[in-house]
Fold each of these.
Amino acid sequence: MSSRALRADELRKLIAAADHAYYQLDAPTVPDAEYDRWMLELRALEAAEPELITADSPTQRVAGRASSTFLEVQHAVPMLSLNNAFSEAEVADFVRRIAEGIGGAEPDFSVEPKIDGLAITLRYEDGLLVQGATRGDGATGEDVIANLRTIRSIPLRLTGQAPEVLEVRGEVYMPKAGFERYNAEALARGEKPLANPRNGAAGSLRQLDPRITAKRPLAFFAYGVGEVRGLDLAETHSAMLRQMRDLGLPLAPEATVAQGISGLMAYYARIGAERDTLPYDIDGVVYKLDQRSLQERLGFLSRAPRWAIAHKFPAQEELTTLEAIDVQVGRTGAITPVARLKPVRVGGVVVTNATLHNIDQIARLDVRVGDTVVVRRAGDVIPEVARVVLERRPLAVDGSPLNASFAIPTICPECGSAIERVEGEAVSRCTGGLFCPAQRKQALIHFASRRAMDIEGLGERLVEDLVDFGYVETVADLYRLRLDDLVAMKRRADERDGVTPETVKQGKIATRWAENLLGGIDQSRSTTLERVLFALGIRDVGEATAKQLARWFGGLDALMSASIEELLAVPDVGPVVSSRIAGFFAELHNREVIAALRAAGVQWPEGMPQRTVEGPLAGKTVVLTGSLAAFSRDEAGARLEALGAKVAGSVSKKTSLLVAGEAAGSKLDKARELGIDVWDEAALLAFLATHSESSA
Ligand code: 5U1
């Protein structure tokens, strides 16, 4: 190695060690001036001899330029989310379920603060940071490595004995102090401030230009792993966290170990009391079964592990005045009453609207215009009106309430169609269907959304204008749009809004946005069947069901002609969803939209049906409770799954069968309440015996 190369190597190590001390240990080791001199010297060496630049050089933290989009990343191991608990009773339930599941003594839990940021994954290969992505839908995220590199607490290279592959899962967040500083500076520059640290973190990672992200004060804490190769992971989660720390990864210092419900509640109380003084926002604490082999035994259900839970802090609340109640019409016509509020800050965010959910909720709250109300927001959910302060209700001279109770209108404010309330449902719906512009707009917004057809450049404002000016009626019309349509529409929208863009003043016509949109629409023509099915907006067909349907039927025509019975055979599809699907495809105008999409060149690969779930229990969701004498619950679950059943952890309307062993408790009560079939162990053994014979 040349003397320059040796010096560059030395400088990189000095800077990495100083970053670690400063950003992770909060214990700076060198004065800023010295650090700056090292950086300058390294930059000069690399400028003179570019071959000296390495991927882990600190000069490469802000490298590359703005990109036009983020690439997709398939997670090697899915990124799970967490179930929530909001009360001691729910935590006690969790502890009991774990105890039942592992059938042993009181286990240890790793207990950690729940950082209010954005979940990400970092992939290190032979110690070098090579990939970084957002969670996305858990299976596929977005490649934001260029932005993640700018975060100084994320090491570009692991220290010590580097494993072949280590995927690190954790949270990117914006420290409170950095958030305050950033906003003060943004205001001074006349820019819009960030709403709160969480939005600040999420928005910063979604910047297409890493130079912008580099100016945002972001940090990172690790809390788990994904794919691991070439490393013996510790047997407990808490020891594994220490292993990560030894590799140079930052951990939340409040993480520790606790036992039993009293230990968990004591931790919750302690962190709750410290919450305001912590340097980052947290929205709860996380409890994880510490023994990793037991975690594996419990596995996960849907997208969340059975062995962990987030215990959330109570929502934040504030008082304000209800100025009006409006109604909004959703994609399926559902009418949501919305409270228009005197602006109020709740947990750092200015709230002006809050949901009132439905008319039953309004009646329960007895909320009226003019009332002083408590507004609540929890994490990133939509703020809601929690209750009314009746003592402050404005009264008429005779002491009666000044304002009348609210009634849902009988006519849709958007399209004039009748609003109906279905028997037994709390929701009222506009009956206008796609005749109603509000429903049409929502259907288009959903169709274009990232997880559906992913049409880049088609935001809500554009959809509103496209519908309002009559350029688009159905989703298929999007594929017929031409450049001059879009330019003409924009001109009409500008006239309506009374704005004359700079370009128009200069006698030019701005078409770049329209070209980009047409490009985005064109790109969405090649897609997948599951995306199309999700995008069509069939009620109760979410992403997971769309995926199942695509897999099960292989092609759209087979699905469109499926009978209710055939639909019911699909795992997870029950009577409601099957009738929604069949009803959707029975409508002529829906079939016409599909034909128009195909005619416009929207295409997806079709394949053979994949119906791997077979057996006498296919399509059945079975729950096991109580203890069985002949085998463990895991074994019983595996036997049932082998016969096609889906084994679930809790009883709901979707449960087909409950197998109740000795000392079955609340699940048995609930199953009886819901009229679900219940088998005892003898019935289970008899069934297994019969069906094992027939399959042998
Ligand atoms: N502290 C912490 N936050 N957090 C979030 N741990 C943790 N673990 C998570 C998530 C989503 O997930 C794993 C348990 C799967």
Note: The chain has five domains: 3-53, 84-312, 317-392, 409-611, 621-695.
Amino acid sequence: MDNHIARRRFGQNFLSDPNIINRIIGAIHPRPGENMVEIGPGLGALTTPLIDALGHLHVIEIDRDLIARLRQRHTPSELTIHEGDALAFDFGTLGATPGDLRVVGNLPYNISTPILFHLAGFAEKLRDMTFMLQKEVVMRMVAQPGTGEYGRLSVMLQYRFRMGWLFDVPPEAFRPAPKVTSSIVRLAPRSPAECTARDEVLFGKIVTAAFGQRRKTLRNTLKDYLDDADFKTLGLDPGERGERLAVARFIEIANHCAARKHGAESPSSSISG
Ligand code: SAM
């Protein structure tokens, strides 16, 4: 690594193990001409091999010192640098073809959950996303009902994306080494036909409420949404906990409430963190 001093406030841990870098590039499998954006290129561990394979890459970087280095190393024809916060970035501006944008990144840990929710809002633009995150976050993303890791993050992301854990990356692969193990995860958007919550805002509120107090039963956590008759109609045990309900069950609950709330009104759509 060169003389850049890693900034903790930007979650900077730079990949330095060439074998791991190769493995990640292999998992991304970049092809010439693809429309790809890397979040947080840092010192360029993934950036340079991605440019070599693609011909052109977009990056979003918040650290001005790192941006200056990237500008020195790459020409504007091969690298488009978007300076600023990825959480405020409009991914809708990248590329004209819906469903072709690929997003990759060794994500800064401090923004990993909000950036996933932010990107969920651009699902129709995306082909796939391959990220390195803390292993603990990836386990929560892909968790199944009835496990300790299953929660709001699992339901909200599994509603929108198919997801899979690919492999782990040990702390020694980075400079400086983080305290925890990381994992590579891939997300691909589900088709709109699969995302069947009639009111996605209401769906999000119900999921948030169900996991708000983990130890409490649905009778308690969903009392603003469901009464005894609703539990009966839905065939749902009021003594159950949110952590045992599959994503499809949350959709049923939300659609039941939406039908009552909206009647014939048009549904609303968007998922926010
Ligand atoms: N990709 C490089 C690597 O693998 O070695 C760096 C990864 S480092 C974990 C995270 C990178 O994201 C840093 O370059 C950091 O400056 C950048 N970053 C942090 N917060 C950001 C934000 N809100 N928006 C865009 N980039 C951010």
Note: The chain is about 35% helix and 20% strand.
